[in-house]
Amino acid sequence: MILRHVSITDFKNIAEASIDFCDKLNCMLGDNGMGKSNLLDAIYVLSYTKSFAGTPDNMLIRRGCPWAHLHADYLRHDAEDDINVVLSPGHKSFKRGGKEYRRLSSHIGLFPAVLVSPSDMNLVSGAAEVRRRFIDMVISQVDSHYLEHLIRYNRALEQRNRMLKDSSADFLLFDTIEAGMDISSRYIIEARRCHIRRLAELHHRYYGIIAGDSETVTMDYRGPLDGTTDASIADALSRNRDRDRLLGYTAMGIHRDDVDVAVNGLPLRRTASQGQAKTFTIALRMAQYRFLVESTGLKPLLLLDDIFDKLDATRVSRIIALVASEDFGQIFITDTNRRHLDEIPGHLAADAPCRMWRVTNGTFEQLP
Prior knowledge:
Elements: E1 2-11, E2 14-20, E3 25-29, H1 36-48, E4 68-76, E5 79-88, E6 91-96, E7 99-100, E8 113-116, H2 122-125, H3 128-140, H4 144-165, H5 171-211, E9 217-222, H6 233-239, H7 241-247, E10 258-263, E11 266-267, H8 268-271, H9 274-296, E12 301-305, H10 313-323, E13 331-335, H11 338-343, E14 354-360, E15 363-367
Parallel strand pairs: 3-13, 3-14, 8-12, 12-13
Antiparallel strand pairs: 1-2, 1-4, 4-5, 5-6, 6-7, 9-10, 10-11, 14-15
Helix pairs in contact: 4-5, 5-6, 5-9
């Protein structure tokens, strides 16, 4: 998949931009706060319908402006395709080929992208919710049923929590809601076990490429029934109703799952250096990329946002060689240091195209 062109109006600090990209390497050079990451976020919104930073839609509109507009032209499965997005306070219009989506969830997975950014460090140091959100995002792109079950489960969870807070004694309704949560949970748990296992295999491979063979990394799924004797989520929810009523929320379920990550058998969040943690997250994104290629047959857009900080020269060199290989498709990379960006073309195939822009206060000037 190739992003050929993007037009941006009043998105974050970008007042107006119209950029034609090349098929391989697209470099954005500039100081911090100039708008490099905002361009990547615009591309991310076109793929995922929302900002990678979780920024509310109304905060994506440039200050003082009534709306923001994004338009993109793609080459997908050797056919031309386009996306048109208008963001305004309280409303979001998302169109593909001139037709508006009835459900935004239908768009997920059609235009895959993988973003590597400094905020990925939260995948190591953050709460379980951060890792769950990552896993849900990855699986949802390759399994539409997974996303449907996730939406159903979360709706049922909200309803159950409201009943708990209201001290409801409608046991029949509790049973009905919990039965629905159980059905969705079974699908989600099995999907997480299967896909996390494959993701862990790919992650181990890419971590070894970047860090060498002296370190061993693991990722293990921790599900809601681990350590319990309950036969199902419905059994566990029924048994815990009184406790949950006191708490005012549902204390167990797939919304509490986690992924345990370790290096050399030690918990990563407690023992890893900054370099190890950064290597872990970059390798995880490379694994996500390969996972999507194998599952969809499309090479996602690879968005690399200031990824070389806190890495030694050897790991930087290995990452550059890795992303420049033919295993990866179109790349968008930002950096404040032109030396890093100038190194990458040397690893590309001789005929691979490369373009560079200088970014200044939301404007993009193409450089030779």
